[in-house]
Amino acid sequence: MHNSEIAEEFYRLAELLEIEGANSFRVRAYRNAARTIENLGEDVARMLARGADLTDLPGIGKDLAGKISKIVNTGHFELLEEVEHRLPASLVELSTIPGLGPKRIKCLHEELGINSPAQLAEAIAAGKLEELPGFGGRLIAKITQTLDRHKKDQRRVRLAAAESLGEDLLAFLKHAGAVRQAEIAGSYRRRRDTVGDLDIVVASDWPAEAMARFIAYPKVAEVVAEGPTRATVLLRSGLQADLRVVEPASYGAALLYFTGSKAHNIALRGMAAKRGLKLNEYGVFRKRRPLPGAATEAEIYSLFDLPYIEPELREDRGEIEAARARRLPKLVTLDDIRGDLHVHTEASDGRDTIAEIAAAAKARGYAYVAITDHTHHLTVANGLDPARLKRQLGEIDRLRESVHGIHILKSAEIDILDDGRLDLPDDVLKELDFAVCAIHSQFDLPRDKQTARILRAMENPYFTILAHPTGRLINARDAYDVDIEQILRAAKARGCYLEINAQPERLDLTDIHARLAKEMGVKVAISTDAHSTAGLDYMRYGVGQARRGWIEAKDVLNCRPWTDLKRLLARS
DNA sequence: GCCGTTTTCGGCCCGACTGTTTTCAGTCG
């Protein structure tokens, strides 16, 4: 069983225990443990195998360590099974419906025997809910609406989609005279790969006007909640947007609060409490008196003797401890990027010519760009066979004569075949500056076979970078089952690298795997996989994901000048 | 159920909004 599955079971248990009315701190303890497990880079099973002590992990004590090792060893989670014996597991689905928390779910279950969204819909249709205490007409109407909409997708949206929706709304807000400062906080600001809703923080001396402006945004489909300082709307796209208006003096505290993550905030508030202080969205307080010098996020951190912590790090994954020890990473920025190592042209499935790509890369201030068209196994992408690739290499030679100020690198995105061989013979591979290698077929191999396939490919001395290492497409296709840790170990031993693919629907390596790569000393390439000149702009998403993985410029291949890079790409 | 420079017990983040209530519980972030 893998970390995400174990975490999932702990989350389910917490949910069910909460419905049963268990001690809320015990419930929280299970949730904290779930979060710790899903944030681990290394498989917990492997940690146990090498004799690691799980109680060293935050939020995991003797009891939970025992439970986890039993789950790993037996595949069974006894406590969860016991609870699911008492309560139907499907109750967990009800908790995803807004307005239904543990208390009301318990009431539905005990009074009406409702255990699932479908049963809930039936009971509403039969008019049974109105008899229950705490279920008024408006709540029932809201639930009905959600149940109707539930069939429609209300998943988290990809960061790029949230960006176009959010920046438009933000620009609209900033046009109002009453809005002094405004920013999109939340997971958007932390650059998570997906965003559940837009959390917007506004500083204003006239909150009512700022609020009115928000509600008046033309793309608002529905006002879900509205108070004097806080409102929630549903945009026509289906994405939810929350607005919070504060006085300018509270802007830093509000931004900190609404950027989260929740876990980061809780950790900060715990620190505040230990110093006899209180931190909330309005500022830092001793007793009821606001402390001066808490107007910005940086000032608030410094009140706790911490340096500024970048939003991408605020996940309570050790950043507070690192800040305290003055060991925060100096995160890579878009400005550090000196080139793009994965770009397609019209020769395979891209849109533009090599010359156009080179000019666009140069315009972005890059020192180099690699041409990486698909190879012939990927026929759907018009992949290049050795003869066509050789012609392309000749074209690059000619362009190198005429195009100055940027190095055009010879490469290809080479298919890793089903048996782990590469899709080009060695005598062609040796003509390339380096090789980007990737899986585009047989996604559903079992974990050991898929891993062995990639390891075999890496044995080829011309293999340089593993592109989109898990093959996931966010909201469309799951990652293939592969042991990234083992691949990283092999990459370290053989001098290979892994890619952080900047396409908004890919973004793999994920943040957690990127951090694991860094910890294991494997450098990464942040590459756009662009299929047009415009696609080069996806770099910012890749950089965001890298930053979430604690990656610094020194960890990134394409932050190096070409002479350095050349040395790193050469395998002995 | 976890945790500890207020340490082995007694804490555990905190405030806004809704709806149903008639002073507040439940939910949410």
Can you describe this structure in just a few lines?
The protein is of the alpha/beta class. Helices cover about 45% and strands about 15% of the residues. α1 (about 5-20) runs antiparallel to α2 and α1 runs parallel beside α5.
Order of adjacent strands in the largest pleated sheet: 11-12-13-14-15-16-17
Return the average pLDDT rounded to an integer: 92
Task: Report the principal-axis shape.
Answer: globular
Distance between the termini: 37 Å
Question: What is the helix tally?
Answer: 24
**Biggest sheet layout:** 7 strands, parallel
Description:
The chain is an alpha/beta fold. It contains 24 helices and 17 strands. The strands form four sheets. It has a seven-stranded parallel sheet with strand order 11-12-13-14-15-16-17. It starts with a helix and ends with a helix. 42% of the residues are buried. The chain binds one DNA strand of 29 nucleotides through residues 23-30, 32-33, 58-64, 98-104, 133-139, 142, 186, 197, 199, 225-232, 242, 244, 257-258, 260, 262, 265-270, 272-274, 278-282.
Spell out the key features of this protein:
572 residues; alpha/beta; 7-stranded parallel sheet; 5-stranded mixed sheet; 24 helices; 17 strands; globular; DNA-binding
